[in-house]
Amino acid sequence: MLELDSITVTYGRRVAVDCASLRVGGDAQVLALLGPSGCGKSTLLRAVAGLEPLAGGRVTLDGRDLAGVPTHRRGFGVVFQDGQLFGHRNVAGNIAYGLTRQGWDRSAAAERVEELLALVDLEGMGKRAVTRLSGGQQQRVALARALAPRPRLLLLDEPLSALDRQLRDRLVDDLGRILRDEGVPALIVTHDHDEAVELADAVAVMDDARIVQTDRPGRLWRRPRTARVAEFLGYGVVVDAHVHDGEASSALGSVLVDGPDGDFALGLRPGSVVLQARGVPARVVHSAPSADGVRVRVRVRVGAGDAAIDVDALGDAAPADGSTVRVALDPRRVALIG
Ligand code: ADP
Ligand code: MG
Prior knowledge:
Helix 5 (165-182) links the parallel strand 7 (153-157) and strand 8. By secondary structure, the protein is an alpha+beta fold. It starts with a strand and ends with a strand. The chain has helices at residues 41-49, 91-101, 106-119, 135-147, 165-182, 193-199, 217-222, 227-232, and strands spanning 2-11, 14-24, 30-34, 56-61, 64-65, 76-79, 153-157, 186-190, 202-207, 210-215, 237-244, 247-250, 253-256, 262-268, 273-290, 293-301, 308-315, 324-329, 334-337. It has 8 helices and 19 strands. Helix 3 (106-119) packs across helix 4. A 6-stranded mixed sheet has the order 6-7-8-3-9-10, sandwiched between helices. The protein has a 5-stranded antiparallel sheet with strand order 13-12-11-14-19. A 4-stranded antiparallel sheet has the order 2-1-4-5, with helices on one face. It binds adenosine-5'-diphosphate and magnesium ion (MG). Magnesium ion (MG) is lined by residues 41-42.
């Protein structure tokens, strides 16, 4: 188990990581670190790898303090965004790199390289120059290289973000399978929500140098602790609600939630509001086609007075502007904030 105990990393007077605590391993074999650009994700990863000194706190592996243990003795595999392969070595040469350094004998190393080529779906490509690989293939070689010496932990810094969407979706599947097959605990930095949800047992949200929430993905998206976390998770609209006996009542109707009684805010994201015959009445402002159907901007009364909010509802067809429709909340896409 890797434990970060209140670690702080500074660059001059700038605090890039502020008192961050995390655990990787055990229940959270794969932990995703999610957060806006510049919030300190890479710095945190580099500190774990031993590439940045700590200004405070400690990093331990199975209880052993890693202070003073240099990067190459930590036994971690690292993959960065752009792979950073050795251009003068072929595919097999890249994968064998850590094995040679560790003094594996030739035949054991060759066997391990073949195993890794199969694992990352590049069988028969060992002799290929890495400069003649596609971006996705290069990232798979980088992953194989990191995994080859059987690292105790894998550190992945946005390993798929340089790839186009389609390729990335495919590689996320591969990466998930590879991490499960190899059984190596991993800390993966990403800014892609789908990637985090698909790969990770736990997701830590980082904001402005701090870890602001760590939870299982399902829990995180249902119960973001603050409006700021909710907003970062895609809940761009917030409505007031009152929760009683597990049911949240709001201007947009009621929805079952997992939370105690009291006043809360509900976070809404695209698809949270749907057109539904049994819903609350709403006036259509306008409609526009979207990839999932029709996005209908509706105005809903809030409270007893004239106050109203505009929200986007998802429908199958475009109702006439100014007409009255009924809308409801989709419980799978609503967050209870707090
Ligand atoms: P992220 O990976 O979340 O985008 P980084 O960890 O790269 O964020 O950066 C966190 C903060 O630290 C940023 O404000 C960045 O400008 C600063 N920073 C990163 N690396 C250095 C460095 N080598 N020297 C000085 N400041 C740095
Ligand atoms: Mg980064």
